[in-house]
Amino acid sequence: MSLHPFGIELLQFVLLLGLAPAFAGWVKTLKCLAQGRTAPGILQPYRDIRRLFGKDIVLAENASWIFRFTPYLVFGVTAVAAGIIPLISVDLPLAATADVIALVMLFGIVRFFTALAGMDIGTAFGGMGSSREMMVASLAEPAMLMAVFTVSLASNSSSLTQMVAVMGHAEFVIRPSLAFALAAFIMVALAETGRIPVDNPATHLELTMVHEAMILEYSGRHLALIEWAGMMKLTLFFALGIAAFSPWGIASDGDIGALLLAFGSLLLKLAVGALVMVLIETGLAKMRLFRLPEYLGSAFLLATLGMIAFFILE
Amino acid sequence: MPASLDIAGFAVLLLLALAVLAPLLRSVRSIQIPLAFSLGAVASLAAVVAGIMTVAAGSVASATMSVGLPGLPFHLRLDPLAGFFLVVIGLVGLFVSIYSIGYVKGYGGVRSMTQMICFYTLFLAGMLLVVLADDAYFFLVAWELMAAASYFLVMYEDEKGENRRAAFLYLLIAHVGALAILLAFGVMAGQSGASGFDGYTFDAMRSAHLSSGWAAAAFFLAFFGFAAKAGVIPLHVWLPEAHPVAPSNISALMSGVMLKTSIYGICRFAFDFIKIFPWWWGGVVLALGLISAVMGVLYALMQHDLKRLLAYHSVENIGIILIGLGLSMIFAAFHLPALAALALVAALYHTLNHAIFKGLLFMGAGAVLHATHVRNMEEMGGLIHRMPWTAPLFLVGCVSISALPPFNGFVSEWLTFQAFLLSPALPHPLLRLLIPLGAALLALTGALAAACFVKVFGVVFLGQWRGHQKPERIHEVGPSMRGGMLLAAISCLLLGILPTWVIGWLDTIPEQLCGAKLSESAGKLGWLWLTPIAHERASYSGPVVFIGILAVVAVTWLLLHVRATSVSRVPIWDCGFVKLTPRMQYTASAFSMPLRRVLGFLFAVREQVEIVPHTNHPALPGSLQYRLRIRDRFWNWLYAPQGDAAYWVARQVGRLQQGRIQIYLLYSFVTLIVLLVFLG
Amino acid sequence: MTHTFAVQLNSLLAALILLTAFALLAQRKILGLVHIFAWQGFFLALSTAVIGYASGEHHLYISSLLTLVMKVILLPYILYTLVRKLKVHRDIDAVVNIPTTMLLGIMLVVFSYHLTAPIRELSNLMTRSTLAVALATVMLGMLMMVTRRHAVTQILGFLAMENGLFFAATSATYGMPMVVELGVALDLLIAAFIFGIFFFHISTTFESLDVEQMAKLKETD
Q1: b/e C6-25 (16+ beta carbons within 10 angstroms → b)
Q2: Which segment, A154-158, B335-339, C57-61, is predicted with the most confidence on average?
Q3: Pair B600, B623 in one domain
Q4: Which residues pair with B609 in a beta bridge?
Q5: Which of A55, A297, B393, B527 lies 20 to 30 angstroms, CA to CA, from B513?
Q6: Contacts of C20 (CB under 8 A, 6+ apart)
Q7: What's the average model confidence in pLDDT over A78-91?
Q8: How many Å apart are CA B457 and CA B394, to the nearest integer?
Q9: Hey, is the C-beta of C14 within 8 angstroms of any chain A C-beta?
């Protein structure tokens, strides 16, 4: 028995929408365990989102339509990205919508509009968050591109499904280029998703906020959408990493058995990936803003070394 | 059905006729502006039609006119490359002409309309003729017509010293460039082997067989000349001076279109005249493109004059176009025609895109200037509430230039990235390692551009009004200005979501210049999917992205509005500090501060903070002054020494001037004797 | 372990050696530098052993062991005690603009790749592709010596250069003759003692190990 490609597409879409809060909850739980606190449980994000959807909205007097439109757009763009990155099968009709580069740019829309929304109210917090976010993003972009470039060298393609297909079936080879690219990717992904050591998702201290400063004025369903999209984005970056660096297990068609297997391996990889991230987040402190150029510069260097290693050594 | 060359000729003649007739219409002022600019729009539309037809058919038409010097007739030729640039000029000309009907009215009663119309039409005609010319003589005449007309337009508000200075600088660099182009033509004609004056036609240059040394001399002379016009770093200094002081409709034309004529020239020289060249030519073009792109956007980020900022972005985008051209030349030099075609299409696509979104942005900046009468961004804010049309249209321009999907800037930049990703196909190992670093620089440029336009839109349109005058006095601009911007914004979207059609249409150009077509692979999966080389390699679908986002947004909105929730409007949360004023918002300088700190070593940045202590208590600050000065390093490195040298030489020559008539007579006498000696 | 696997493993180790060379350029803390240097030695020793296994040149095992003892244990230990004794373990070296140094470093790698291209064409050893990395390591060590100001880091740059040379020898010709290698190892050891003595003298004379201070020795006119 096999699932129609559009069925897989729908399944993946639902899976990501539904799974993202649980994944965020899992990360939070692991973090609590690692830091010796009591965990609120994996389901807490669902409760948070439901609560926020039920609340009324408090809007600043001079908020324009940009501010009200941004949550929907952020959610919409993230949802479209969710239909493109192969989670459990490469047989996705929409996978050809964007290759990795276009995908990165899609997240660029999210960032652009979130930063605009941060400036819309006209408080210093919002402007500060936007300014910092754009700086981090500018410096992360070259490293991201370089990592993508290195990965695309190995599979001769920048299309994710193709990468999965090539890498998933290749025999095991030690590739220093991919190891470097993976390290760079992790560093950049931490920056793009606003995690420690770049940004602290749990703080509301003015000196350290980046992403939270931009969305400080949001409430009600707007905030719910942004939070949900943020969780999806985190999950999607993991999915992106999995598809690019360890695609083993992702099904090549819609066979139900293969899909189940792929789902199992996805959960396993996500769980392990979250553990790695939590270890990084617990082990490191948030960096000062002006140390970030060095951090992101190192990511760029790693990705470049990966590219060089590919040409010199492989 | 009239031939496309005739239509293009009609466009030029209409514009020239308008220039002549403008003074006659002076008496009927009420219809002078609408009539002149509507006819300008008609002429532009004709140029667009001619261009679209030529490119679509891949036809080449040429004509010899009986005008010109005896024995040196003017030649015209319309091939797909020229046709493409006709479309670029015509489209922006169309939008700007519509926009100008409303914009120019703002000068009504203060300044001569006739002058504006006359030079505006001459400027457009000059640009069209540059593209149509098929001999060196005619090309240079058209080139000078374009330069002179735009010089007078930059000088339009000539009572300001700043404007005169900018216009002079512009004229100076334009002429140094023109001189180099003239020399390049000289080299080509001299080496073409044609007898007598025949060498000056482009046909002779096409068939010329140059030795590699002469070819390089010709190309780099031409490249220097065109780069001066295009504002390639380090020849960019005139651009941020001239663009802000020109009327905004003229800035839109200059930045959107005039710079592109140099891209046309470079394409013409490299791919049409010389054809066979070593890879390092492309390497030079690529390197200069990268420098221009990165430095252009960084300088832009530091500006707080809206139009100056946009001018620096033109430097950046010309850089991006040159990156595509350079890659294309490198691929062509290694006989990889399909890849050369991809990179060339990326460059041309970006040429078209930049023309439209930069036109849109300058028109938007003009609208803001029209409404607020300030150019300094630090004195704006919250305009989205006062200008409900301009704001979203300007936003479209911002998103497009930031290379975000689904708008047009993204497509061309994505194509350039694809060209970069294909660089491992090059047989040269060193290039394989170096070219990807260029891709990283391009990524940096794109991200910085996004940061810059968050700043622009955020500071100008969002937040609260920071200026001195009352914000209630600011009003939305009139329908013709909105119309011009709206058309440009729609074009941005269409070019972004229908790239397969555009590439299919463009295909005749790479076919003629690189010997390979792109559309067979680019549209293999149908119009919905853009697959530049092969669908396994990379793909993008503008329509799916656009419709997908729209659909999810719509569904989410509907679902969340089933249940009525109240939205309560409250004052801004001030953290308990009750005296919150608009001046406490983040400013443009504050926004770019982190990046200024990180990348400041590339500029000459001087920051001064002065704290005057409070009169009552020395520990408390009374007032605080912050001064920031950012200078273009190239000015000090390159131009100031040259200017000083010129002054020095002039002073030395000045010694000849004694002011005594006998001395002058002596000069003449000595000259006469020297000449006689030589004659004897 | 198959032959191709050994080649791949060697490539990975080469990449890691290159990485440590860059890490040396980026690290500010003196003790951190010593650790990275030890890691570089470790990868070098491992790589030598792998080459020795794959090529069947068994004398390389001895070289590997020698490297392990010298560069992973002995030299780092000497440096470590020196740094402790001189109380400079908290020192942070003033580096000229790390990002620029990194970019220069990348350019040097590309340059060494370009330089070794003809050798790659001629050689048929399995290690020929790592030669570029070896040369790059030498150059990066040189770059480190140029851009650093602290005496200890300059010595580390020198030692990293030697690592690169050693790696170059193994990749180009499967190692130098045993006699030469032993000689070099002995030289290094003696060098370590000599620079130890010099450090003491510099630090007692200038109360700092900043080599910029030595500019004071110049006679002013």
Answers
A1: bbbbbbbbbbbbbbbbbbbb
A2: B335-339
A3: yes
A4: B626
A5: B527
A6: C36, C37, C39, C40, C43
A7: 89
A8: 8
A9: yes
